[in-house]
Each structure stands twice: as structure tokens, then as C-alpha cells.
Amino acid sequence: MPDSLPLPDNFFSSILIMLVCVIMSGYFSATETAFLSFNKTKMKALAADGDKRAALVLSLSDRYDKLITTILIGNNIVNILLASVSTLLFVAIYQDMGATISTAVSTVVVLIFGEITPKSVAKDYPDSFVKFSAPLISLLMWVFTPFNYIFSGWKKLVGRLLGKKEDSKMSQEELKMLVEEIQQDGSIDEEESDLLQNAITFTERRAEDILTHRVDLEGVSVDADKAEIARIFSQSRYSRLLVYRDSIDDIVGVIHQKDFYSGEGVTDRPLTEVMTDPLFVHPGTMINDLLKFLQTSKSHVAVVVDEHGGTYGIVTMEDILEELVGDIWDEHDEVVETFRKLDENLFLVDCAVNLDDFCEFFALKLESESVMLSGWVMEQTGKIPDVGDTFTYENLDCVVRETDGHRVVSLEVRQNPIADDADEKDSD
Known about the structure:
alpha+beta; CBS-domain; four-stranded mixed beta sheet; disordered C terminus
């Protein structure tokens, strides 16, 4: 240690100034971290209950550019002042070595007490700290108004020179990841997470993604007698039936069970008088638009037509709501297990499942023009599949187990473990 001179007369005042600078440096650092981490929803709830500090926090948060500019200005002022006073003090005491000692001491003190410690505390207790720091930082924002005005103009100039800034809005994938993180933190349970994720992806879904295909439709001919219609109502247990002329490709109406039966049994009115006009949509209709269409039309069924004007399938109000809340079962529904586990890594899959759900279940990434699994199976086999046909895709060994006419009903899938790169190298 170099020889030191007697303590200067301003020793204690310099120490006091340095102490205040360190405290203020910690305050600015913690405030920055707290305003980045606080729970805005909770703060809105507190503000709605009359908490004035919470209302001030929200007001400052809405002016974040001015807030961060004030924090940076304040933090730089106190850090520069600390370094200057520290240098003068240590030079007065240690002369030539004073500047070096000042730099070392100032750096360590600011790093520990002005950055790391306050930011760690603010990260752990952001809601409490923003309410604590709000009054002072609000006052400093007013004091630094001229500087904020200058830097705001400078920011706009730089923004123009660099071009249009990137869109800061969160994508749907980012929102889904955020929901997953919130679930992992324990703030919401799995059911709430699924509901939120369904709501996020709701606007991406189209009518063709959720429709009931034409091969699964129940309909009656416009010329059918009432005994036949009553039989189909009884066997299908549907509350609504499609009415067609000549073939299912020419839908002319929808008949509701409550309109078909009167208080004394089957209605005496002709079928054409009790059925309602069908609604037609194209496969690419977004389901949020379709929901509004059904609501305004006071209908529960829409017929999806293909590019040739034929019937592609139907979408019901229930189909749309299930995209949000999951499967809706009633006492007449037959429970179908989409992915039934037969053995270790062996599953029997219902081919009416959406291809996206199949990919999610088996962690696959594939590109296909098909919407349903049955269509993808036909792509893989290159023909209309027969029972016993097999194919392999990545780590999946697939066997067609059941067909109905030209349609694949079920697929047996064995999921083989994926070999690690390291294992493959060892085997080599």
C-alpha cells in the first residue's frame, strides 16, 4: 500500500456524497428492473380499488420512454459524480496511485451496491418496489423534462435514419410460449392453459379444419316419407338432419327434430314447410367469421361446399365451440378414443382425427395438403388403402387396421425410439 497523506478537510463530506451517489445508483438500477418486471394486471386491479400509488405506477409505465430516459440520466449523473469525488479524494490521500485506487474501489462498489444487489432485490419484489419508487421517479421525470424533450427528438431522428422499427407485437407462437411459462410457474392449471391456447389459435382455424366430412353426414331426401325420417332421427340421435334433392351434393334444407315432431307426434305439415334454408360457406372461411355468421343467421349448421359446388362437409356451432373449450359430450354421444394405447409405444388411432393433432401427439413435423389423418395415409400409400397396408414415416411404423369403402377408419402406429447422434457414432 502506498504511503498516504493526512486526511483532507473535505474527507467526511466526500464520503457522504459518495454514499448518497451509491444509494441513488442502486435506486435507479432497481427502478429500471422493477418497471420491467412488475405485474401490470395486478397493478391495474389495485388501481381500480383506489390505490393511488398503483395508478401512478401505471401512468409512468405508459410513458416508458420518458421513464427510462430519466433513469439513465439520473444513473449516469450519480455514477459520474461518484467517480469524480472518489478520484479527488483518493488522489488527495494517495497522490499518484489515487486514480488507480479510486477506479478499482468505485467499480467494485457500484457493481455490488449500485447494480447487482438492487437489481436482484427489485427482480424478486417488483410490485412493491415500483410502488415505493414511483413518487420520486415521477418528480425526477418532471425535473428532467428539458432533457427528455431533447433525447426524445434525438430518438425520433435516429429512428428515421434507421428506417421503420420492427413490429413489437407478440406473435401467436410467442403468446402460446408465454401461457406455457405461466402454467409452469403454477399461476394457472393445465385446463386453464389449454383454454387460453385454444383461444390464441382460434382465429387461425378454418372451416375445413373442423368440418364433419360428407361421408359421415346423415341426411334425408326431400321426397322421403315421414316414417323414414323418423327412423333416421331415432338411429342417428342427431337433433338436425340435412335435406337433399337427388344427392348429398344438392342440400336444400335443414330439418330440426323439434319442428318435425309436434305435441301429438310427427307433424302433419309437408317437409318443405318445416325445414329451414341451409347456409353455405367455402372451406377457407375462418371459424371466428363463421361463428359470427351463424350467430347473425340464428342457425347452428353451415354446409361447406368445395370448389365444384359439391358438399364437402358441415360445420356446427358445437364444432366451433369445441375448438375453444374442448370436446362437448352429451348423453347420446358415443365416446371415441382418438389415440388408444394398445401396448408400450403402440397406438390405435382414429383416422378422423385432425392431422395437426396427430402431429402434436407423435411430435412430428410434416407438410401435407391433407387436413385429416385419413388423407395423409392415402398420400403415404399412394393409393386407396386396404386393410393390412403398411408404411413407415420417420420413427413411426404404420398399419391400416380398418377401412370403410374408400375411407381409412383406423391406423395402428408403433412409435420407435429416436436414436441419439452420440449412440449412432458409438455404433459406427
